[in-house]
Design goal:
alpha/beta, Ubiquitin-like (UB roll), Translation Initiation Factor IF3, 2 domains, four-stranded mixed sheet, 5 helices, 36% helix, rod-shaped
Length: 171
């Protein structure tokens, strides 16, 4: 969360000698000396908040600063809720996978893709299996083809050491 208090000057922290004042209902009250503006804010039992420090004279508003701060934090939390984070799930295969295991992994992958997650499919080779990389590629190509209705290939298959990996993104 952004600490609003760091960036906004309130009450005695305002440095200008004169300020353009906006009242608690949003009405313009004109250009007043700082002390007069502080007295008015105390009269309303509210804070004097510097809204636009870059203009001359700076614009200040009479408001309840703690309520304003709370509203800003609530807006930030709401905005954070509606952000979507893409997660990358990983599915691990081997070249000599049995049909049932293959179907389970495929269902998991389709489920992840339907939940809008990316899936990294990794096919691992062990020992002498490295001599038959083509068999592994066939399994991976079949897997990609079967998952085609739920996702598309985002990054093509790459052989990295003993692993062929491909990234699928949701449609």
């Amino acid at each position: 969360m952004v600490d609003i208090k760091k960036f906004v000057r309130i009450n005695e922290r305002i440095r200008a000698s004169q300020v353009r004042l906006i009242g608690p209902e949003g009405n313009q009250m004109g250009i007043l000396p700082l002390q007069r503006a502080l007295d008015l804010a105390n009269q309303y039992e509210l804070d004097l908040v510097e809204v636009a420090p870059q203009v001359e004279p700076p614009v200040c508003r009479i408001m309840d600063f703690s309520k304003f701060k709370y509203d800003q934090e609530r807006k930030e939390r709401e905005a954070k809720k509606h952000q979507s984070r893409t997660r990358v799930k990983e599915i691990r295969l081997k070249p000599n996978i049995e049909e049932h295991d293959y179907q389970v992994k495929l269902r998991q992958t389709i489920g992840f893709l339907n939940k809008r997650d990316k899936v990294k499919v990794c096919l691992f080779f062990r020992g002498r299996q490295m001599a038959h990389v083509d068999l592994g590629r066939k399994v991976l190509d079949r897997f990609i083809n079967d998952a085609q209705q739920a996702g598309k290939v985002e990054r093509d298959s790459v052989l990295e050491g003993r692993v062929i990996s491909v990234v699928l993104a949701p449609r």
